[in-house]
Here is the input.
Amino acid sequence: MAETNKTKKNIKITKIVLTGGPCAGQTTALSWINNYFTNRGYSVLFVPETATELITNGVAPWTCSTSYDFQVVQMKMQKCKEQLYEAAARTMNNEKVLIICDRGMLDAKAYIKDVEFKKALKEIGTTEVKERDEYDAVFHLSTAAKGKEKFYTLGNNNARTESIEEAIIVDDKIISAWTGHPHLRLID
Here is the structure.
């Protein structure tokens, strides 16, 4: 293998998850984060929400045999995307890189039974703790369905199907999935 003239760069990669229940304002937050950290000298990379990407392209819980099958596909794709973004970050000319994941691996836990989630992790070859600890911080934005019902809408995301009641349940399950992360922050 030929040697390159490139020297190993000291790149600080920070990876965070921006999560929350349906209609929680992640899109607005992503824009703010991009501006804020870009102005402070970071290269900011966004890993787009995998579930929405799959659903809007024909792979959905209702098109797969089971919700479990969908979540396994979604988790595998999420893992792959994050690894690719991290590899790209290591090639950047900036010493400070921030990777924002619009949802993370543990979000899948909110959509399937605990026993299924453990089975999915085993199938992927990982553990819940290992996946949780891949992120430097987790920011959970509360769904508009909790107290701001008039702002809750299905109209701005074709992949969103939850009623207000279902959105509250999912929001609580996502909080529970990430509970235990040392840098979990809940944002109302």
Notes: Residues 67-89 form the longest helix (23 residues). Strands lie at 12-20, 43-47, 96-102, 137-141, 184-187.
